[in-house]
Amino acid sequence: MQINKYELMTIISTGVSEAVRDKAIARVEEVIAKTGSTLEKTDKWGVRKLAYPINYRNDGFYVLFTFKGQPTAIAEIERIIRITDGYVRFMTTKLDEVAIEKSNKRRSTVKPRQKPKRPPGAPSHTSGSRPHAPRADKPKTDTRADTRADTKAQTKPTEKKAEAKVDTKADTKAEKPKVEKSKNLK
What we know:
This protein is an alpha+beta fold. It has a domain at 4-109: Alpha-Beta Plaits. It is built from 4 helices and 4 strands. Helix 1 runs antiparallel to helix 2. The longest helix is centred in the last third of the chain and has 31 residues, at 145-175.
């Protein structure tokens, strides 16, 4: 049979203890070895934020296993992950030789990201002051005072109309005669 290169990305719940997490990682490494696959490396990425909550958790412990093995070994490895406590999600990916070469080439040319340096005397915006904050020495003027008086004058007649409608309804209710129910009718 052919031997392929695989990556197995797993997320372990942060709700489990460190001892349980280490046992879960060791169990997967053991199963990879039992299936006749060769484990190349195990990268423990640590706790990272999840893209969306899983089981009411917002973060998980990421582990990346890189190994070579037969395609039939994948089913057994994934079965063991499903029944092992602590694993939240997992994904196995078959790596293509061309993709591996491109990835290695890209990793060798990529430089680590550095923070840009500020020139001396440049303001730091981390102190809490924002450049677009309103100035405190400028008094605020209210230009809507005239329009407020106009709107009050317009609302008064409508209030009277509403009161008049309420009064007419009260009068019509009072004019209706009350009908007494007789106690003898059943």
